[in-house]
């Protein structure tokens, strides 16, 4: 966290011209405001003030008090949170301590000396679950994106391709950069990239919560500041939490993700159209890979999701959930026989001048909405529009083509050629004011604020 500025501006009564005044010793009250920065744990979603977070000792032998490192201690708080799969040896971790309430600590110092060995540590931990935060996670704003979808809807593949697009095609359009935060995300990030782009293999399915906790993927998104006198960068931590499809089969199973869903700034619901009977009936048999096994109906997942959010304070006065919901129909490459030759689903958005094209989004929204009207008599579309106040429909393909019929676990031989995978996330970021959005009917002119909930039905 950056320190509170020490330079104030004082206006002279005679000249009425501002002159700088250097405040050598700002009062404690100013540092108190720095102490109020809130950090959301990306693992258990507990909220805490940054300066009140505990630290974990590194257990290194370079201390100033005899040179002896601290011994590891049992961290039962962390082990209980991670689940029964944690072996006893891994429960022994660096001691957790709370820093003293000094002025330096209130400024949000990035390193604090361990009271046991004297070695400074940058590792801050969650006070509730004792998970370690990446070194720079607490230094920036965070946006939690919930990724929800039935089994076999392609969530892991979607994330891997989305990250690649944000780093290359989309990142270039918005002058943005994306970096994995923490060793766990960096490792999984490499594995996803190697599977999809080197080995041309689809990622393994997400494990159910009953088998242990699924760590979120943490990324640092850096965007340029826009406008006059706002040169520099704006950094945001993106937290992607992937729920296994098996955990969405009932309201009871989904309860494991209550804290995650309640804390989400936005939800991306992946809908596999091949799970809908009316879509399966329209596809020509024998063309493309075998159809997937029918899993939990998307309509049931949407209903259970809305019920969980309402039960935990995310319902509005009119009975609809207020969390922004991006409904993404996946595998649009399989829907080409159902699309017109000029369908916007057949090409990527241009992202001209680094601005979100609102007219383009609305065109996609209306096309998907029209398609959904014919799918199972429009039941899913009606369910979503009755339950969510801020809703937009999207269509995307993470691979751009079906997997080979003889090898359904492989990516296409040409590698992923995605279509519109970034659209749901960029819409959510635009609603939070992180990206400029063009006004409908006025290409090139961006609105800085977030459109109100009353406009969010489209």
Automatic annotation (TrEMBL):
Stretches assigned to the Double-GTPase domain: 143-334
Matching Pfam families: DO-GTPase2 (PF19993)
Region entry Disordered, spans: 437-458
Feature: compositional bias, Low complexity: 446-458
Chain segments annotated as coiled-coil in the UniProt record: none
UniProt-listed InterPro entries: DO-GTPase2, P-loop_NTPase
Protein name from the UniProt record: Putative LigA
């Amino acid at each position: 966290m950056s320190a509170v500025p020490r330079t104030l501006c004082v206006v002279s009564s005679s000249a009425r011209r501002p002159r700088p005044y250097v405040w050598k010793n700002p009062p404690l009250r100013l540092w108190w405001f720095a102490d109020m920065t809130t950090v959301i744990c990306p693992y258990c979603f507990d909220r805490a003030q940054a300066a009140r977070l505990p630290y974990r000792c590194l257990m290194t032998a370079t201390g100033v008090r005899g040179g002896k490192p601290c011994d590891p201690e049992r961290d039962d708080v962390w082990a209980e949170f991670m689940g029964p799969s944690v072996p006893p040896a891994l429960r022994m971790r660096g001691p957790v301590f709370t820093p003293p309430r000094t002025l330096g600590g209130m400024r949000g110092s990035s390193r604090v000396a361990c009271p046991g060995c004297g070695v400074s540590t940058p590792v801050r931990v969650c006070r509730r679950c004792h998970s370690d935060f990446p070194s720079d996670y607490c230094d920036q704003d965070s946006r939690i994106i919930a990724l929800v979808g039935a089994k076999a809807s392609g969530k892991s593949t979607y994330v891997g391709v989305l990250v690649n697009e944000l780093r290359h095609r989309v990142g270039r359009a918005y002058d943005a950069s994306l970096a994995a935060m923490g060793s766990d995300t960096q490792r999984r990030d490499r594995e996803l990239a190697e599977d999809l782009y080197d080995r041309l293999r689809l990622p393994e399915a997400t494990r159910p919560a009953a088998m242990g906790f699924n760590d979120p993927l943490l990324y640092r998104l850096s965007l340029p500041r826009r406008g006059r006198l706002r040169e520099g960068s704006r950094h945001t931590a993106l937290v992607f939490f992937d729920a296994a499809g098996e955990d969405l089969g009932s309201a009871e199973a989904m309860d494991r993700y209550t804290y995650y869903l309640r804390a989400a700034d936005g939800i991306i619901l992946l809908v596999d159209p091949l799970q809908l009977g009316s879509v399966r009936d329209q596809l020509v048999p024998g063309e493309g890979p075998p159809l997937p096994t029918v899993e939990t109906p998307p309509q049931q997942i949407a209903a259970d999701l809305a019920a969980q959010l309402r039960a935990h304070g995310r319902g509005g006065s009119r009975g609809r959930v207020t969390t922004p919901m991006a409904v993404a129909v996946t595998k649009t490459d399989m829907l080409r026989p159902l699309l017109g030759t000029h369908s916007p689903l057949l090409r990527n958005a241009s992202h001209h001048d680094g601005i979100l094209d609102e007219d383009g989004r609305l065109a996609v929204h209306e096309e998907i909405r029209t398609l959904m009207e014919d799918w199972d008599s429009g039941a899913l579309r009606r369910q979503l529009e009755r339950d969510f106040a801020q809703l937009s429909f999207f269509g995307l393909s993470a691979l751009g083509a079906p997997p080979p019929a003889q090898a359904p676990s492989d990516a296409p031989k040409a590698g992923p050629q995605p279509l519109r995978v970034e659209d749901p996330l960029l819409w959510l970021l635009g609603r939070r004011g992180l990206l400029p959005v063009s006004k409908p009917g006025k290409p090139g002119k961006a609105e800085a604020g977030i459109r109100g909930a009353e406009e969010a039905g489209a």
